[in-house]
Write a structure and sequence with these properties.
35% strand; mainly beta; six-stranded antiparallel sheet; binds beta-D-galactopyranose
């Protein structure tokens, strides 16, 4: 049977790539994958420093297991242009930084120590998508995903593609197409087992292994559960190739039964309308770039699903980590996946690669039930009939079960896909004060498409650069970001022809000098780069039934003199409560209902307290005393949440929280630690900017610098595993608060 092993440890990493590197081990640093070639500062850096060549070398000692078998390396992702050598010979090359590739070692392995040398070029080679123009993100160099060593017999199972025709019929059907690789098997059999989520067999079929491909079909299956965002039920197909020489193979594919369709009347999941509420995600992290391991990828999916209540993520602007997508399958987060690219179209070779990327992406990911749309157009590129006829036709030929989309940013573009997807940045394109705006938040489908007929339509970006907002920005600027999110979501919920909208974006990201705030960061997220929420995150967080989680978040730092002219009105309170009561000092208490007039379509409109409902004097005029406030939230008449804000905040406590108590030594794992400077009622102090020093003791390593500052009353960092186990002590020192410490455990399990 197939043997698959992680091949991540003990790579020797060095800068540059001289010719002798293919034959000789060089001096270098011992690293574990995923690896980032150059750790960047948080901001204000020269992005040219990783745009050059790097060398990764590793020895592989001959094992008796290799004898008479096929030995491969599979690279899940290396940026951007890779060439693999074995014992001096070039054995594989791949010119895309986001899709996997294999290097076949078999023929050149020697019975001793084998030298693998990988030349990685981080250059922005204009022959390779997404390069050639300016792109608003960074493509950090390195072997930034996992590498796997695979050993199979001379015939192996190469791919499995699973389809579930008519998934809404009471009795279900599943069809699996498989391809064999290598020598044509003689007298072999292939067995296909359909397993439930506990690994129990539901059905089994067998056939002779003749030819290079084959198909299995199971019909009339009873008791199958659908995959849905609320109950993401997964099934598994396990294919076993048995050969007379005993050298068989086994490969599995997880999948789900679900239907997903964008229609002119909106998106339907399993035949039911579902308004898409999503965010775009870049796969980058501070300092570590793209090179974060499995659990950090999974946590991003969880943040989107559970903290932000998104039902869809767009993998802008490239195929993302398999760990991330696997987790989207497990937790029920829909995905719109895309090929690499950003506005620019290159020459013929470049375009050929873009078409190939469609194939790489779909073949890698066609079994994920979470993926409901293939992006087959370079994000925001001009129309190009030839190119996009090719990408669409390839996508349809490889996968007839999913629709295609092509994200554009201009109206009346040539519509070759199944779903017209548009980055609609109309809101804020005219500067109007939000409170009396009546401004347009989203355009309607026919205006954008110019088609004069209803077609499936999805808004794939909004906000972003129209109103960059730093996590430490002043209250009014942050409130405006909140207002824009509220208005766009409200507009999307109010228009049946809009399948939904995907905001730009989940978290801030490093970028080129030509974008962002001059600091090499686009502060476009509803969270910052550390995934710490801005107020706008509360817009998403509050759109959930209070039986799941009660939310009450006043969009204010609660200070008399933070805003222009002073005071806190108008005050938006993001909440899913039926009503809230606000108490101020000892005299003022008033109850408010969600603002259904301003946001009639939102599932959970915020409360808006403005000068019409409250006279400014009741909260005290300039010069009078500023007091504490309490917000009480009620659901069905019962008080379910209480939020206090101090009128006289005093720095009281420094609190450390880790997002997990254990660090896995068996893989490149990282946990995030948040440090909060809290006042006496437990609110982070927005403008406290004290310095901090971080000390990590034990088998773990701090990612990024050991000296930090609070921003918006919070600081965060990741701590990464080493290969050792044991207790890890993380201490943070601040001159004001002294030292706080937490302990975590680096474990093998
Ligand atoms: C879009 C683009 C995104 C990002 C965004 C900023 O035009 O697709 O990648 O740059 O603008 O708002």
């Amino acid at each position: 049977m197939r043997i698959v092993r992680q091949f991540n440890k003990n790579w020797i990493f060095s800068e540059g790539f001289e010719a002798d590197a293919v034959r000789q081990m060089r001096e270098g640093e011992v690293v574990r994958l995923p690896h980032n070639a150059v750790d960047l500062p948080l901001n204000y850096f020269d992005e040219g420093i990783y745009q050059r060549e790097f060398c990764y070398q590793k020895t592989l000692d001959w094992e008796p297991k290799f004898d008479g078998r096929e030995v491969w390396l599979r690279f899940d992702g290396a940026m951007a242009d890779s060439v693999v050598h074995l014992n001096g010979s070039r054995i594989a090359a791949h010119t895309d930084g986001y899709t996997p590739f294999c290097a076949r070692l078999t023929d050149r392995l020697i019975r001793g120590s084998n030298l693998i040398a990988v030349r990685i070029s981080g250059e922005e080679n204009s022959e390779i998508p997404p390069f050639g123009g300016q792109i608003d993100y960074l493509t950090y160099a390195g072997i930034y995903r996992d590498v796997w060593l695979t050993i199979t017999g001379k015939s192996w199972i190469d791919t499995i593609k699973v389809e579930t025709p008519d998934p809404l019929m009471p009795r279900k059907c599943v069809r699996a197409e498989f391809r064999l690789g290598g020598a044509l098997p003689a007298n072999g059999t292939v067995e296909c087992r359909l397993l439930d989520s506990d690994g129990r067999p539901i059905a089994i079929r067998q056939r002779c292994a003749t030819g290079t491909c084959g198909e299995f079909e199971f019909r009339d299956l009873d008791g199958i559960e659908l995959w849905d965002i609320e109950s993401p039920m997964l099934y598994r197909l396990e294919l076993t190739l048995t050969l007379p020489d005993g050298n068989g193979d086994r490969l599995t594919a997880d999948f789900g039964f679900r239907s997903a369709e964008f229609t002119p009347e909106g998106f339907m999941l399993n035949g039911r309308p579902l308004k898409i509420v999503g965010l775009n995600r870049h796969q980058s992290f501070p300092h570590a770039g793209y090179a974060m391991g499995r659990r950090a990828q999974e946590r991003d999916a969880e943040i989107l699903k559970h903290e932000l209540n998104c039902n869809l993520v767009r993998t802008s602007h490239y195929p993302q980590s398999p760990w991330f997508l696997d987790h989207c399958d497990r937790i029920g987060l829909l995905v719109f996946e895309e090929i690499p690219g950003w506005q620019h179209l290159g020459g013929e070779g470049w375009k050929r690669r873009a078409v190939e990327n469609v194939g790489h992406m779909i073949r890698r990911d066609w079994n994920h039930p979470s993926i409901v749309l293939w992006g087959v157009r370079i994000n925001e590129s001009p129309d190009d009939s030839d190119l996009y006829r090719q990408t669409n036709s390839l996508a349809r030929q490889l996968d007839s079960t999913r629709q295609t989309a092509g994200v554009r940013n201009f109206a009346a573009s040539e519509f070759l896909e199944d779903v017209y997807t548009m980055n609609d940045f109309v809101i804020g394109s005219e500067e109007l004060p939000w409170i009396n705006s009546g401004r347009i938040a989203l355009r309607n489908q026919e205006e954008v498409t110019g088609l004069g007929r209803p077609v499936p339509y999805l808004v794939t970006e909004f906000n972003g650069h129209m109103h960059p907002t730093k996590i430490w920005d002043n209250e009014q600027r942050q409130m405006e970001q909140v207002a824009r999110y509220l208005e766009v979501l409200n507009a999307s919920f109010g228009d049946r022809q809009i399948s939904g909208c995907i905001g730009w974006c989940m978290s801030d990201y490093n970028t080129h000098k030509d974008f962002g705030s001059g600091d090499r960061i686009c502060h476009h997220g509803v969270m910052d780069m550390f995934r710490l929420p801005k107020f706008a995150a509360g817009v998403y967080a509050s759109q959930v039934d209070p039986s799941k989680k009660v939310v009450l978040q006043p969009v204010t730092f609660w200070a008399r003199g933070e805003r222009s002219i002073g005071g806190v009105l108008p005050l938006i309170v993001l909440t899913n409560c039926d009503e809230i009561e606000m108490r101020f000092g000892s005299d003022f208490a008033m109850t408010f209902e969600p603002s259904r007039t301003k946001y009639p379509n939102l599932p959970f409109p915020p409360v808006v307290i403005d000068h019409l409902s409250v006279s400014s004097d009741s909260l005290g005029a300039w010069g009078s005393e500023w007091d504490d406030t309490v917000f009480l939230g009620r659901v069905a008449g019962e008080c379910v949440i209480e939020v206090r804000m101090a009128g006289n905040p005093v720095a009281t406590e420094m609190k450390l929280t880790a997002d997990c108590e254990t660090l896995l030594a068996t893989e490149k794992d990282a946990i995030r630690v948040d440090v909060q400077a809290l006042d006496q009622v437990g609110t982070p102090m927005p403008f406290l900017t004290d310095p901090l020093t971080v000390v990590v003791e034990g088998p773990a390593r701090l990612i990024g610098p050991a000296m930090l500052v609070f921003r918006r009353g919070t600081a965060a960092f990741w701590v990464e595993s080493t290969e050792m186990t044991g207790a890890v002590e993380i201490s943070v020192f601040s001159p004001r608060f002294g030292t706080s410490t937490i302990e975590i455990e680096a474990v093998c399990e």
